Protein backbone atom coordinates (compact mmCIF):
# COMPACT_ATOMS: atom_id res chain seq x y z
CA UNK A 1 0.00 0.00 0.00
CA UNK A 2 2.88 2.30 0.82
CA UNK A 3 4.43 2.00 -2.64
CA UNK A 4 1.07 2.58 -4.30
CA UNK A 5 0.50 5.66 -2.15
CA UNK A 6 3.90 7.11 -3.07
CA UNK A 7 3.27 6.38 -6.71
CA UNK A 8 0.09 8.41 -6.62
CA UNK A 9 1.81 11.37 -4.98
CA UNK A 10 4.99 11.43 -7.04
CA UNK A 11 5.47 10.50 -10.64
CA UNK A 12 8.72 8.64 -10.96
CA UNK A 13 9.53 10.37 -14.26
CA UNK A 14 9.50 13.66 -12.33
CA UNK A 15 6.66 15.18 -14.30
CA UNK A 16 4.25 16.56 -11.84
CA UNK A 17 0.65 17.52 -12.37
CA UNK A 18 -0.66 19.86 -9.74
CA UNK A 19 -3.36 18.06 -7.81
CA UNK A 20 -5.54 21.09 -7.54
CA UNK A 21 -6.18 23.62 -10.26
CA UNK A 22 -7.98 26.93 -10.09
CA UNK A 23 -10.94 27.08 -12.46
CA UNK A 24 -10.51 29.74 -15.17
CA UNK A 25 -13.09 32.49 -14.88
CA UNK A 26 -13.35 32.30 -11.11
CA UNK A 27 -12.24 35.06 -8.79
CA UNK A 28 -9.66 32.74 -7.25
CA UNK A 29 -8.15 32.02 -10.66
CA UNK A 30 -7.77 35.77 -11.27
CA UNK A 31 -6.16 36.16 -7.87
CA UNK A 32 -3.80 33.27 -8.61
CA UNK A 33 -2.80 34.90 -11.92
CA UNK A 34 -2.21 38.20 -10.11
CA UNK A 35 -0.02 36.47 -7.50
CA UNK A 36 1.97 34.61 -10.18
CA UNK A 37 2.47 37.77 -12.25
CA UNK A 38 3.90 39.71 -9.31
CA UNK A 39 6.10 36.73 -8.46
CA UNK A 40 7.49 36.61 -12.01
CA UNK A 41 8.04 40.36 -12.14
CA UNK A 42 11.03 39.98 -9.86
CA UNK A 43 9.47 42.06 -7.11
CA UNK A 44 10.79 41.73 -3.60
CA UNK A 45 9.18 38.60 -2.13
CA UNK A 46 8.18 40.51 1.01
CA UNK A 47 6.07 42.77 -1.20
CA UNK A 48 4.70 39.90 -3.30
CA UNK A 49 2.98 38.23 -0.34
CA UNK A 50 1.07 41.32 0.81
CA UNK A 51 -2.70 41.26 0.42
CA UNK A 52 -3.66 43.21 -2.72
CA UNK A 53 -6.00 46.15 -2.00
CA UNK A 54 -9.66 45.18 -1.99
CA UNK A 55 -9.06 41.42 -1.93
CA UNK A 56 -10.37 39.01 0.70
CA UNK A 57 -7.73 37.66 3.06
CA UNK A 58 -9.26 34.18 3.05
CA UNK A 59 -9.22 34.00 -0.74
CA UNK A 60 -5.59 35.16 -0.73
CA UNK A 61 -4.64 32.53 1.86
CA UNK A 62 -6.56 29.80 -0.01
CA UNK A 63 -4.76 30.57 -3.27
CA UNK A 64 -1.37 30.40 -1.57
CA UNK A 65 -2.06 27.26 0.44
CA UNK A 66 -3.00 25.39 -2.75
CA UNK A 67 -0.05 26.83 -4.69
CA UNK A 68 2.46 26.01 -1.93
CA UNK A 69 1.03 22.51 -1.65
CA UNK A 70 1.57 21.98 -5.38
CA UNK A 71 5.10 23.40 -5.35
CA UNK A 72 6.33 21.69 -2.18
CA UNK A 73 4.83 18.43 -3.40
CA UNK A 74 6.94 18.85 -6.54
CA UNK A 75 10.10 19.68 -4.55
CA UNK A 76 9.67 16.61 -2.38
CA UNK A 77 8.82 14.57 -5.48
CA UNK A 78 12.22 15.36 -6.97
CA UNK A 79 13.88 14.43 -3.66
CA UNK A 80 11.84 11.32 -2.94
CA UNK A 81 14.34 8.86 -4.41
CA UNK A 82 16.89 10.05 -1.81
CA UNK A 83 14.39 9.94 1.04
CA UNK A 84 13.78 6.28 1.80
CA UNK A 85 12.76 4.06 4.69
CA UNK A 86 16.43 3.25 5.06
CA UNK A 87 17.92 6.74 4.81
CA UNK A 88 15.17 8.40 6.86
CA UNK A 89 13.54 5.90 9.23
CA UNK A 90 12.24 8.82 11.33
CA UNK A 91 10.56 12.00 10.10
CA UNK A 92 12.99 14.50 11.56
CA UNK A 93 14.83 17.77 11.21
CA UNK A 94 18.27 16.90 12.56
CA UNK A 95 18.82 15.28 15.94
CA UNK A 96 16.77 17.80 17.87
CA UNK A 97 13.43 17.69 16.04
CA UNK A 98 11.19 14.72 15.42
CA UNK A 99 7.75 14.98 13.87
CA UNK A 100 5.03 12.45 14.61
CA UNK A 101 1.93 12.00 12.50
CA UNK A 102 -1.59 12.44 13.81
CA UNK A 103 -4.92 12.70 12.00
CA UNK A 104 -8.57 12.11 12.78
CA UNK A 105 -8.82 8.71 11.16
CA UNK A 106 -6.01 6.16 11.20
CA UNK A 107 -3.56 7.81 13.59
CA UNK A 108 -5.49 9.26 16.51
CA UNK A 109 -2.35 9.54 18.67
CA UNK A 110 0.94 11.12 17.50
CA UNK A 111 2.77 8.24 15.80
CA UNK A 112 6.39 7.76 14.78
CA UNK A 113 6.63 7.29 11.01
CA UNK A 114 9.50 7.18 8.55
CA UNK A 115 9.95 10.38 6.54
CA UNK A 116 8.51 8.90 3.29
CA UNK A 117 5.48 7.54 5.16
CA UNK A 118 4.94 10.88 6.90
CA UNK A 119 5.18 12.74 3.58
CA UNK A 120 2.71 10.36 1.99
CA UNK A 121 0.20 10.79 4.81
CA UNK A 122 0.72 14.55 4.73
CA UNK A 123 0.17 15.01 0.99
CA UNK A 124 -2.96 12.83 1.03
CA UNK A 125 -4.32 14.67 4.07
CA UNK A 126 -3.79 18.13 2.50
CA UNK A 127 -5.25 17.01 -0.79
CA UNK A 128 -8.37 15.79 1.00
CA UNK A 129 -8.75 19.15 2.78
CA UNK A 130 -8.23 21.41 -0.22
CA UNK A 131 -10.69 19.39 -2.28
CA UNK A 132 -13.32 19.63 0.45
CA UNK A 133 -15.87 22.27 -0.58
CA UNK A 134 -16.92 22.78 3.05
CA UNK A 135 -13.39 23.94 3.93
CA UNK A 136 -12.11 25.40 0.64
CA UNK A 137 -15.32 26.56 -1.07
CA UNK A 138 -14.84 27.36 -4.76
CA UNK A 139 -18.31 28.60 -5.64
CA UNK A 140 -18.78 32.36 -5.63
CA UNK A 141 -20.80 33.60 -2.68
CA UNK A 142 -20.14 30.51 -0.56
CA UNK A 143 -18.44 31.72 2.64
CA UNK A 144 -15.33 30.20 4.16
CA UNK A 145 -15.94 28.25 7.38
CA UNK A 146 -15.11 29.91 10.70
CA UNK A 147 -12.16 27.60 11.31
CA UNK A 148 -10.64 28.22 7.85
CA UNK A 149 -7.48 30.01 9.02
CA UNK A 150 -6.94 27.43 11.78
CA UNK A 151 -7.04 24.66 9.17
CA UNK A 152 -4.60 26.61 6.97
CA UNK A 153 -2.26 27.10 9.94
CA UNK A 154 -2.19 23.32 10.43
CA UNK A 155 -1.55 22.69 6.72
CA UNK A 156 1.22 25.32 6.47
CA UNK A 157 2.85 24.19 9.74
CA UNK A 158 3.12 20.67 8.37
CA UNK A 159 4.32 21.86 4.96
CA UNK A 160 7.05 23.83 6.72
CA UNK A 161 8.28 20.50 8.13
CA UNK A 162 8.87 19.29 4.57
CA UNK A 163 11.35 22.17 4.11
CA UNK A 164 12.94 21.35 7.49
CA UNK A 165 13.47 17.71 6.49
CA UNK A 166 14.61 18.46 2.94
CA UNK A 167 17.07 21.20 3.96
CA UNK A 168 18.59 19.37 6.92
CA UNK A 169 18.71 15.83 5.51
CA UNK A 170 18.83 16.25 1.73
CA UNK A 171 20.61 19.54 1.11
CA UNK A 172 23.48 17.78 -0.71
CA UNK A 173 20.94 16.23 -3.10
CA UNK A 174 19.36 19.65 -3.74
CA UNK A 175 22.80 21.02 -4.67
CA UNK A 176 23.72 18.00 -6.80
CA UNK A 177 20.47 18.33 -8.73
CA UNK A 178 21.05 22.02 -9.34
CA UNK A 179 17.77 22.78 -7.59
CA UNK A 180 19.18 25.01 -4.86
CA UNK A 181 18.02 28.36 -6.28
CA UNK A 182 14.55 26.99 -6.99
CA UNK A 183 14.11 25.48 -3.53
CA UNK A 184 15.49 28.60 -1.81
CA UNK A 185 13.09 30.88 -3.71
CA UNK A 186 10.14 28.68 -2.88
CA UNK A 187 11.20 28.55 0.77
CA UNK A 188 11.64 32.33 1.00
CA UNK A 189 8.27 32.95 -0.62
CA UNK A 190 6.63 30.50 1.80
CA UNK A 191 8.48 31.98 4.80
CA UNK A 192 7.54 35.59 4.00
CA UNK A 193 3.93 34.54 3.43
CA UNK A 194 3.53 32.76 6.77
CA UNK A 195 5.27 35.65 8.57
CA UNK A 196 3.12 38.29 6.86
CA UNK A 197 -0.09 36.71 8.18
CA UNK A 198 1.34 35.09 11.36
CA UNK A 199 0.15 31.68 10.18
CA UNK A 200 2.78 29.43 11.78
CA UNK A 201 3.93 29.56 15.40
CA UNK A 202 7.46 30.97 15.62
CA UNK A 203 8.60 27.92 17.65
CA UNK A 204 7.91 25.75 14.60
CA UNK A 205 10.35 27.88 12.60
CA UNK A 206 13.32 27.27 14.91
CA UNK A 207 14.89 24.32 13.03
CA UNK A 208 15.67 26.59 10.06
CA UNK A 209 16.73 29.71 11.94
CA UNK A 210 20.30 29.00 10.88
CA UNK A 211 19.76 28.31 7.24
CA UNK A 212 22.26 26.43 5.06
CA UNK A 213 24.93 28.57 3.45
CA UNK A 214 23.89 30.03 0.16
CA UNK A 215 20.44 31.04 1.34
CA UNK A 216 20.32 34.70 0.58
CA UNK A 217 18.64 36.03 3.69
UniProtKB/TrEMBL annotation:
InterPro entries xrefs: MOB_kinase_act_fam, MOB_kinase_act_sf
GO terms for MF: kinase activity
Sequence positions that bind Zn(2+): 83, 88, 165, 170
SUPFAM superfamilies: Mob1/phocein (SSF101152)
Keyword terms of this UniProt record: Kinase, Metal-binding, Transferase, Zinc
Protein name stated in the entry: MOB3C kinase
Amino acid sequence: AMALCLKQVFNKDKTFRPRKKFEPGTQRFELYKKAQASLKSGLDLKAVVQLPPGESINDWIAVHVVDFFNRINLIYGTMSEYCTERSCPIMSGGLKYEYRWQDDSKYKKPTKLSAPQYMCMLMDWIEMLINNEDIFPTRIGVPFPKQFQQVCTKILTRLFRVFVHVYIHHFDSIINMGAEAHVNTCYKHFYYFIREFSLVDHRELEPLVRMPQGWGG
